Sequence to fold (910 residues):
Amino acid sequence: MMFRTRLLLVFTLAVVAAVSLVELLVVGNTRQTFERMEAQRADVLTRQFRKEFERRGSEMVRAVNAIAGSEIAVNIAVSPDPAVWYTEAGQLAASHGLDLLELVAGDGSIISSAEWPARFGYKEDWLAAGGDWRKRGAFLRREELPGGTALALLAVGTAAAGDRKLYVAGGQQLDREFLSTLVLPEGMQVLLYRNLEARFSPAELIEASGPAASAERLRPLIEEVRTSRREAVSTVGTGADAETFHAVPLSGDEDNLLGVVLIGSSRRELALLETSLLLNGIAVAAAGILVGIALSWWATARITRPVRRLVVSAGKVAAGDWNATVEISSGDEIGQLARAFNRMTGQLVAQRERLVQSERVAAWRELARRLAHELKNPLFPLQITVENMQRARERYPEQFDEVFREGTATLLAELAQLKQIVGRFSDFARMPMPEMQRVDLNTLVGDTVKFFEAQLSEAGVRAVTQLDPRLPPVQADREQLSRTLRNLVLNAIDAMPQGGTLTLRTAALPGVARIEVADTGQGLTPEECERLFTPYYTTKTHGTGLGLAIVQSVVSDHGGTVAVESEKGRGATFRIELQVTS
Amino acid sequence: MHKSGPALLLLPILLASATRPRYGGTLHVEIRSSIETPDPPNAGSGIPDLSPAFHITRWEAGRRAIFESTETVPGGRPFLDSVEVTMGRALRDQSIDLELGKADLIELGPSEIRRQPPARKVWSSSPVRVLALVFGKLVDDARVREALALAVDRSAIQAVLLQRQGEVSAALLPQWLSGFAFLYPTATDIARARSLASGARPLALAVDDPSFRPIAERIALNARDAGLTLAIGHGSDVRLVELRVASLDPVRALAAMAVELGLPEPAHADSPEALYLAERALLQGHRVIPLIHLPDVYGAGPRVHGGPGVTPLGEWRFENLWLEGGRP
Fold:
């Protein structure tokens, strides 16, 4: 991954992380604020419901006291035959807007019942035992009705005439009609759980429109209030359908839990607001991230420009352009780096020149040594032959002709060797430019093996060829490449004086054609491998040390590479790789 | 004295003309029962009692019947020209019609009786109707039937719902007819009823006459105290019915009731003891639970004079009635 890409990635990640963090903080704080507002709203709604409930209770008390204070109540109280009043409660309840009304004699016997007319004569002992009802106000009580048990908001009034007393117990059922008449703000709903059974019963949870559909959802909240008898709050549902319910326990006249009012406040508006806020936040964050990425792009481009120049210059240096320099445009660390790079390349150029000079000197010295060594061998016989010829003329003139003939023959032979030595040096100095043509390397390898058949047989070397039929032809100078292979084969034969196996192998690699020449000779040390392609370096007792130097020169002129792999005692493999051009 | 002389003479004349029967007019009668037979009934009380002083001229089954006076009847023509009977009229509506002058003679229910003004003419018969619970054939457990018989508080029903009309009784024949109705116990025994009703299935209580629904509700409440569930509505388990004493002969009356209730024909009785045993045999097993004997009670409007228009047996006697504003 490029430095610039990495830097851009780091900057982008930093921007995304920072923007996300800010977004999370903003959304979190806003949500908390909304939740606080929602809780306050729900609290207000709960108080409002309580007030409404108390108001309804006060209405009950007023209505009941109005009946108790009426003339008809006194008449009923003093009536010698209460039976004649048994339908009165129904009429009074209708005229005072009460669901429930019972007129009860001082002994607790029902004279008339609006909700259950047939119950006349039955006892309501709790009224006589209730004490001063005027101070009680409205209260909750479970009432037995023809259709079953109901929860009722009741008030009790008393009418007295002399020693006769009449209880007026009236009120309203806490049922869906009651809930539907409550004045509630928009977005609020009230549910009532009538705690009339020992266990939770979904049918006892009602709302203004009838049985509550969400009974099971609210069961845990109701169970909690039933257990603790304290107010509880819970949010039911998710998203825009979520509702927060405040559960308020309703205690009866005997401090028993008779009901649970669930004041539900829809979280739809809050959810929509939060969603809107979140979407806006995401949009702003996305815009911020995009701007951040753009700025990061610009910043990374600005920061990495000198680095890229350094990279380009370093590439040039690596490619051999040691004069490459970097423009210094700042005084920061990058500028210092560029300055150091320029200084380093300058020193490298100087060192290279010094090295070239010293190598040149060393090469001349080596050349002189090699020339002296190569020339010394033929020169010595020349000297001896000439001295023999001089000695024979002076001392044995009759044999001079014969000595002269033999001596000139020797001289000519040694001069031919000298000429050969000089020719080799001359060849190396005059390596011509390759003349490129399509060359089939498999054919070239086969021809080379054929060329050396007799010599290989004489040396006891078995030749093996492993040719890759997929090998494509390459652009090369056939003559030079043939000479290169011959040099390598000759070296291999020399490396196996006791005989062995010579393997010539070709292989088609992606974009590359490979030729390997492997022997099973004594191998090379790593140090020998390193110096093997140095001109005039040889491990043999004979030779000029130019063979492998010529091989490297030819392969290099063809844009290829040559390498050697070897271990001492396990032979050596020379590998030539040439580019394949389509 | 001279100045007041003519006035003193005129007053007795006016009084005499006001009390003297007058001919003509139509007596508007309203009843709650609705007789659905294609032809007018010719036996029983009520409409059949109009003959022979009146003869029917129009019959609309279940709605209306018009009778006209018979000129040639022995004893002379009735004062009324005609009698129009409207059927199927609720007791409350009858009271309203009487107040508004749309009706001259109506039936009075228990709750209406105490609301009548003091000047209202109220004619009452002896207790000639029996209010009773009748079990259907599906209720074959006598213990359940007895439980209900022991649970019903007849006194409360009579005192409150019927405003002390009629007589509490556990007998089919009224006391005035048989003389031994008091022998049948009417006291409640909720504890025993509870033990008898243990494990009983819910029963359906049907009410033939809507005006008896409050009584049915009270019976259901009493039954609940005994552990019996009675659901008021349609069904064939128990019915709250009204029977009429069809004859002044108690033997015949009992036989008629047995037929009407689908009970076996009672054994022939030629003595009060035998009749008692016959009635007790009918009531044994509590297939029928007599509750209360009720009289027929009628209220007459201010136009109606003469009478009473109802005999102690609840028969209509309209030939002696006359209406104000008729011809002399």
Residues 333-429 of chain A form one domain. Residues 3-68 of chain A form the longest helix (66 residues).
